[in-house]
Design a protein that fits this description.
One of its GO terms (molecular function) is ATP binding. Pfam families: ABC_tran, CbiZ. Keywords: ATP-binding, Nucleotide-binding, Translocase, Transport. This is Vitamin B12 import ATP-binding protein BtuD. Helices cover 29% and strands 29% of the residues. It has two domains: 256 residues, P-loop containing nucleotide triphosphate hydrolases (Rossmann fold), CATH 3.40.50.300; 223 residues, 4-Layer Sandwich (L-amino peptidase D-ALA esterase/amidase). It is of the alpha/beta class. α4 runs antiparallel to α5 and α10 packs across α11. The strands form six sheets. Strands 13, 14, 15, 16, 17, 18, 20 and 24 form an eight-stranded mixed beta sheet that branches. A six-stranded mixed beta sheet has the order 6-7-8-3-9-10, sandwiched between helices. Bound molecules: adenosine-5'-triphosphate (ATP). Adenosine-5'-triphosphate (ATP) binds next to α1.
């Protein structure tokens, strides 16, 4: 659809801006052009739209150079949406959109046919521009103007849509609405899209392929996975960039770190926490956000949190929406649930075990509640167990260290191994299988790390951190289970 070979072009033949580019964009493809300021994106765009002459090489649109087409033929094939909104006359929105039909109109006195009007109406509905169709274009906001110009471009029913920063003036809702609409046209009408985009994350989500332009040359052409080359991006954009994965769409998303990140004030680990406890909940508050990995009812995943709560529920607690419950309990206590890892337990909270340890320079704190009425041997699949009694081990583990995301996972494994070992040593049995239990059916855990000091990528049993985790978790879980057994025995 768009074929570029050995393209050289720019504003003067002595100093071309585009220096030998090869690119083949297929029919129905969404192609994004990325690159820092001054890398030549607009210049390449102008070459593709025919605003600048090709100095060397070949540039074909549907198999012919752009000069091959008459103005009207070109307008039937290609619609262009640029950042420069240059409409000086007092047109209404509908009049502007109707200009998109001009290349399709026939006869000496061109007028809008029924088909033209139908297409205009359809596009106005899709672009949400119908409601101000009688307004003067000049009186619209930047974002509204952008949408009207997209409507005009789509009304053209082009084969190729060339977009220069199409979402420049748009808020988040309209950015996604516009790109969703373009994607829909790409899918249903095989529209070919060539778009300059500044937002790398938007490009990753919407483009089938993308190119990274630097100094008038392509550094990279490929699908969105090429955006995972953090070092290359950091070099080109001169910003610290980390590629993460979108939680829902399997595409990379890039996180930029500001140059002047203010380091959180270093507080001694022993003074970092405040502790509140009553019959209803335990609340540990950190003075600074901690990096967390957790399967808590709220605050799950890898995030940052300042509050850690364990709520008491009755043995018969049953709820369809425990997340909502915990969020409500937090709100009632003025604890921001977005910053909280929240768990629940039927264990008496006065039985909570708090262990603190210092091994060489490594400081740790474990806060554990344990009930083992629902102890389960996870390796036995034959029998299903329905939790009927107190049966949750909740572990909150705080570490004064700096762990990478991989080390957080590693640390979690270390803690689980230690919990299981504690259960084995106490001969906790799965009552259904009569074998040694490995955990309970609803265990929760959070590892919360201060990110103090140099980052370490390991927290397994071969490291001091891993051993420290193992040691403190073993001790705290053992004590919590013994406390639970004593209470159950006393109550029996
Ligand atoms: N009309 C012009 N005459 C001469 N040089 C120009 C002209 N327009 C742009 N340039 C130069 O061409 C180079 C590439 O500019 P271009 O506008 O293509 O970059 P860009 O990647 O679109 O940048 P931005 O992200 O800032 O829009 C720059 O060095 C710029 O100064």
């Amino acid at each position: 659809m768009i074929k570029i070979q050995g393209l050289v072009g720019g504003y003067s033949s002595e100093k071309p801006i585009i220096n030998g580019i090869d690119l083949h964009i297929e029919k129905g493809e969404f192609f994004a052009l990325l690159g820092p300021n001054g890398s030549g994106k607009t210049t390449l765009f102008k070459l593709v739209t025919g605003q600048l002459p090709v100095l060397e090489g070949e540039l074909l649109l549907t198999n012919h150079p752009i000069s091959y087409y008459s103005k009207l033929e070109k307008a039937k094939k290609v619609a262009v949406l640029t950042q420069e909104i240059q409409i000086s006359f007092d047109y209404t929105v509908e009049e502007i959109i109707s200009l998109g039909r001009y290349p399709h109109q026939t006869g000496f006195l061109k007028s809008l046919s029924t088909k033209d009007k139908t297409i205009m109406r359809e596009v106005m509905q899709l672009t949400n521009t119908e409601k101000y169709k009688d307004k003067q274009f000049r009186n619209l906001s930047g974002g509204e103007k952008q949408r009207v110009l997209l409507a005009k471009a789509l009304t053209q029913e082009p084969e190729i849509l060339l977009l220069d920063e199409p979402t420049n003036h748009l808020d988040i809702k309209h950015t996604f609405q516009m790109l969703d609409l373009i994607k829909e046209w790409q899918r249903t009408r095989s529209l070919t899209v060539f778009a300059i985009l500044h937002d790398l994350n938007i490009a990753s989500l919407y483009a089938d392929r993308l190119a990274l332009l630097h100094g008038g040359k392509f550094l990279e052409v490929g699908d969105s996975e090429t955006l995972r080359k953090e070092e290359q991006l950091a070099k080109v954009y001169e910003v610290l960039i980390k590629a993460e994965s979108h939680p829902v769409v399997p595409k990379p998303q890039l996180l930029m770190t500001p140059g002047n990140v203010e380091k959180e004030k270093v507080v001694a680990f022993s003074e970092n926490f405040s502790f509140y406890q009553d019959e209803e909940y335990v609340h540990i508050k950190s003075s600074a956000p901690l990096r967390t990995i957790s399967n808590g009812v709220v605050g799950e995943g890898i995030k940052w949190h300042k509050h850690f709560c364990n709520f008491h529920v009755s043995k018969t607690y049953h709820c369809n929406d425990p997340i909502n419950d915990i969020q409500q309990w937090l709100t009632e206590r003025s604890i921001p649930h977005e910053q909280t890892v929240g768990m629940m337990t039927a264990v008496q909270l006065s039985d909570v075990v708090v262990q603190k340890e210092k091994i060489e320079d490594l400081e740790l704190m474990a806060v554990v509640t344990a009930g083992v009425g629902n102890a389960v041997d996870i390796t036995k699949t034959a029998l299903k167990q329905i939790p009927v009694t107190i049966g949750t081990i909740n572990i909150m583990l705080f570490i004064h260290a700096h762990l990478t995301d991989g080390a957080l996972v590693n640390g979690l494994l270390s803690a689980v191994e230690a919990k299981t070992k504690a259960m084995h040593d106490l001969q906790i049995m799965d009552p259904q299988t009569n074998t040694l239990a490995t955990g309970t059916s609803t265990d929760a855990m959070v590892l919360a790390v201060t990110q103090h000091g140099e980052p370490t990528p390991y927290a397994g049993s071969g490291t001091l951190i891993g051993k420290g985790i193992g040691h403190i978790v073993y001790k705290a879980v053992t004590e919590a289970i013994l406390t639970y057994q004593k209470r159950v025995g006393l109550n029996a």
